[in-house]
Write a structure and sequence with these properties.
The structure is a homodimer of 341-residue chains. Chain A is α/β, with parallel strands linked by helices and 341 residues long. In chain A, 44% of the residues lie in helices and 16% in strands. The first copy, chain A, is built from 13 helices and twelve strands. In chain A, the strands form two sheets. Chain A has a six-stranded parallel β-sheet, sandwiched between helices. In chain A, strands 7-6-8-9-10-12 form a six-stranded mixed β-sheet, sandwiched between helices. In chain A, α9 links the parallel β6 and β7. In chain A, α5 packs across α12, α8 runs parallel beside α9 and α10 crosses α11. In chain A, 50% of the residues are buried. At the A-B interface, α4, α5, β2, α6 and α11 of A face α4, α5, β2, α6 and α11 of B. The first copy, chain A, binds a DNA duplex (16 and 16 nucleotides) through α2 and α4.
Chain lengths: 341, 341
Amino acid sequence: MPDLTLEDIARLSGVSRSTVSRVVNEHPNVSEGVRERVLDTIKSTGYHPNVAARSLASHRSWMIGLLLPHSVSSIFIDPYFPQLIQGIAQACNQRDYSLGLFLIGSREDEEKIFPRVSRRGMLDGVVVQTGHHGEPLIDRLIESMIPLVVAGRPNSSEKVSYVDIDNVNAAYNAVSHLIRLGYKRIATITGPAESTVGIDRKEGYRRALAERGRTIDPSLTVEGDFTETSGYYAMNALLPSHPDAVFAASDIMAYGAMRAVREAGHKVPDDIALVGFDDLPLPNSPGPPLTTVRQPVMQFSTSAVEVLIDIIENGADPPRRVLMTTELIVRESCGAYLRHK
Amino acid sequence: MPDLTLEDIARLSGVSRSTVSRVVNEHPNVSEGVRERVLDTIKSTGYHPNVAARSLASHRSWMIGLLLPHSVSSIFIDPYFPQLIQGIAQACNQRDYSLGLFLIGSREDEEKIFPRVSRRGMLDGVVVQTGHHGEPLIDRLIESMIPLVVAGRPNSSEKVSYVDIDNVNAAYNAVSHLIRLGYKRIATITGPAESTVGIDRKEGYRRALAERGRTIDPSLTVEGDFTETSGYYAMNALLPSHPDAVFAASDIMAYGAMRAVREAGHKVPDDIALVGFDDLPLPNSPGPPLTTVRQPVMQFSTSAVEVLIDIIENGADPPRRVLMTTELIVRESCGAYLRHK
DNA sequence: GTGAAAGCGCTAACAG
DNA sequence: CTGTTAGCGCTTTCAC
């Protein structure tokens, strides 16, 4: 199948190149008869327009990029990123965009990738995952003027568009649930202090406690890094302070905590209640079903793509902000059922 | 930063467009002085070539596609795919290629994606994951003449290039290990019968047993689908036949089996030994450390990209085949340490 | 409604 | 070693 060109199709259907281009792009000004004729020869020849030529002429590539900074090996142990990738990929398909995936694992990666991404021609826009404080990538992207949407709240409060879930409220609700259940010494295992998710979920915890006039006991807050192991160690660090409930900033850390609780000879939720965050499908999850905050990752991804396309088509001003609400999924680990008996 | 063109750089450095093109593409025929001058103005202006124009003129996009067929929601619960994506992405970076990711979840997806992928202009080549029997995608890709490498052994024994791990031998070695340990009733939980991985690993099991003159007891083979749940049910189905060891075609299924064993009141490895397959990092893994076959996913990915680039540069003939060896990682679940006491 | 013509920004012979 | 000249395959005014 030698690659056909517009020219070929034009000749075969006895019209001009422009006309074929019009029917391919669904322009209104084509008579029905001609349209059908052209469509026929396109179908019968299996013609598809050359993407590069089209991009060059139209300044649109119909491809968007997904940038994942700091993608060290461990990043894919967290179920969040596969899920995000899948969501973005699906949303792209939906809107007839292709997806370019850029995993940035190091400074060199960033240097290699940045030119490809920032310079127009390959990508119409990018969605970039928020990373840690002081990460210059997002600022560089802003400077490059490429249509941009940040997945997650960016650390710097720039005039960027972003889509995020309402982490503060989500954590607030989770902890409030624990308070309502009557727990007195509610601890939290946070995410990394440099990450916005970590910060926001901790803030929600703090706010829920403060609002009921509880003092915040610093010994009841331990930092984790979203890994199972960190949850395990955090829980061990918490144990001497005798928490009766723990809000973990991710399910995986909650499972780590659960393991620590079990090894210490205590039971979840009887001795220590546990609430997690994510509710993403995990390959295997031991112990009692986890009460957790459900993140709408799929809607989140769709929204990010929608916003980006909106920016591509209508410009970046004003910056768009969308905050998605979460849902507390009450299962057994928080002891709600226990208490209701 | 208005997008600069080759022309601009040429004017600014007082040379012709071709010369700039030459230094950008590292052609040898440029004098040192000129090269430096041009490089300087490129650096100072922050110029980057337009990818679309370059592709159009050179018939090379420096982008390859990764196609994942049948990417239903559950596919990302398996740690294999994230790992594969990461490996491919890294290898692409290494070789200065970009990566286009195409998740194909349905027939409509395939129809949408196929033209974008098959028609030259966007992609220089694709690596496609093997799916199930009767999947026409790979054949369609072959027909389209796009440089292609299959990740995993394709079902149809076409003249395709592929990279695979030696599943038969891997399974053979795992089961042989169990035989050497003295187990008499060795069962297996296979992958889906339509998948080549499933078929090959089962064949290795069969071969190991046959070679020692063991009869294959059909009640000791149960099919799973690589999910934890399927491993759990498979083990329950196996229990009445009293296996003393089980080879599961994936770690996740092994964990499911472990759960079933535990619930039945038995212990791993004391009552039933367990060997898995994959050795990929899982967020949380209960029970005794799993003896398993380690898949070299990263090398595998690198190899797939290397082979694809080789094909892009040197043609698809003859078809390349690479088979990677695996390693049996002996931990506790197989009872090797127990038996050595 | 349709065609002609001028690019989009770059590469790649071909001269010199 | 360097510049000139054609395109690559498509979109997009602008006439008709």
